[in-house]
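Researcher: Go.
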Amino acid sequence: MLNTPLYLQVKEKITESLIHGKWKPGQMIPSEIELAKEFLVSQGTVRKAIDELSAENILTRRQGKGTFVISHDEEKIQLRFLRLTSNDGNKEKLDNQLLSFAKVKASAYIAKILQLPANSTLIEIKRLLTFSQRPLIYDHIFIPANHFRGLTPEEVIQKKGSMYRLYESNYGIQMLRADEKISAVDAEPVVAKLLNVKKQSPLLKIERISYTFGNKPIEWRLGLCLTENHYYKAELE
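Model: Structure:
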């Protein structure tokens, strides 16, 4: 720690405060001057720490207002992990249908991905996502049951499809980043019927692992997507 640059030490202290709920999603954090006094460092050191946390989509600066904790209640953040875009660029009404909700034992594959003991209990959620009332994505999710005690199908439905808003507002778990693997697959019979396409129609397969603070994996998700009139948009830095 002694050899760690000061701004990284400040970044770690701010992150620890966020993990312990000192500042909630959507809440403004103290000013750079106040944090500099608290951590006994210069304002420039605090600014550099906040710059990194902003680049990581943990904090966001608002001109003339201050620095706030990122929240999935903000529209641009809600859609940060949803990359399918209409070919014509029109904004679409997003909706979803809950297909199933169950508690299951983790397979060896999912347990390893989510860094859980073998046979841990998971919540398995299957949904059908629609864009402008047209089925577009078959969504299959696993999350650790011990992090979401008491979660019900009604909660999933009430949040109108935004699982990350649900995790954040009801359980205090923020999703900060995700890793994805993308490939092309043929539609199997059950999924083809749900998406209203022929069997073996081409689909875009997106396997995603989402992480919270401390680089901890919290969600595994599989999306099978129609891309006849949509494309996957990625921003590279």
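Model: The chain has eight helices and ten strands.
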